Amino acid sequence: MTGRGLAVVLLLVLARLAGAACTTLPAGCGVADNDGDGCPDLCDVCPVDPDPDQADADGDGVGDACDLCPGIEDHPTGMVHRAKLSALLPPAGDDRLDLLDVRDLEGAIIHPEQEALEIRLADHDGEIVRLSLDPAVAGPYWVRRGGGLRETWRWRPPSPAGASGIKALKLTRKGDLFAFKAKARALDLSAADADHLGVTLRVGDDCWSAFAPICSPLGGGKNLVCRR
Ligand SMILES: [Ca+2]
Ligand SMILES: [Ca+2]
Ligand SMILES: [Ca+2]
Ligand SMILES: [Ca+2]
Q: For residues 103 and 81, is the Cβ–Cβ distance under 8 A?
């Protein structure tokens, strides 16, 4: 993890410990407030979902507005390493998630071939898209390699049409670290016009959130690229 990434994670952990009410923020939250809810990004329990009350019923530091694991403690929030969304201009429906690359998350024991999987993308206008895999349908297409300290799972269906548009996934657990990559197409990502992006992955009862602090529209708005 880079020094900057570590600092952001530490601030998010501080916000978690503080209960994260926007009126009692710890120092160092900065002033950037992408979703305009009065709580700066670095201490916002949902940095891309407007939630001025910062409601967090399960107290895990991920607000109710963006918590895909309500009632269950999420893993600590991380950073998006890179994301690229393309073909965002009309016609609708041809949009693609060319790459979603999230790293440096907390490791966990998962069984994606047996568990429901969701990926949520959101910006300050709310949810852009939610991709879901039903294990009853997706299970046969998971390929697991390794074990012990390092495990990888790759998923590639015969057709993305029956898989929420997802065409490839890779999940990696290396010791205490976890990472995932995703590609999808035939989506409606037209709401993705912001300079920040929030990502949540759920595998069964395990949830990870990550934040992309720097996104840029390129090609006259055709593409959106986010970097760490
Ligand atoms: Ca905010
Ligand atoms: Ca918020
Ligand atoms: Ca929560
Ligand atoms: Ca939770």
A: yes
- Of 117, 115, 136, 134, residue with least CA distance to 182: 117
Q: Is 193 exposed, middle or buried (0-12, 13-18, 19+ CB in 10 A)?
A: middle
**Ligand that lies nearest to the alpha carbon of residue 49, given by its number in the listed order:** 2
pLDDT of residue 1: 46
Measured in Å, residue 141 CA sits from the centre of ligand 1 at 38
Ligand number nearest CA of 70 is: 4
Check: CB of residue 166 under 8 Å from CB of residue 99: no
Phi, psi for residue 7 in degrees, rounded to 5: -60, -45
- The tokens for 108 are 């966990």
Q: What is the pLDDT of residue 24?
A: 67
Give tens-digit pLDDT for 167-215: 999 999 999 999 999 999 878 887 766 678 899 999 999 999 998 888 9
74 Cα to the center of ligand 3, angstroms: 7
Q: Could you write out the DSSP letters of every residue in 154-165? A: EE--S-GGGTTT
Whole-number percent of the chain with pLDDT over 90 = 55
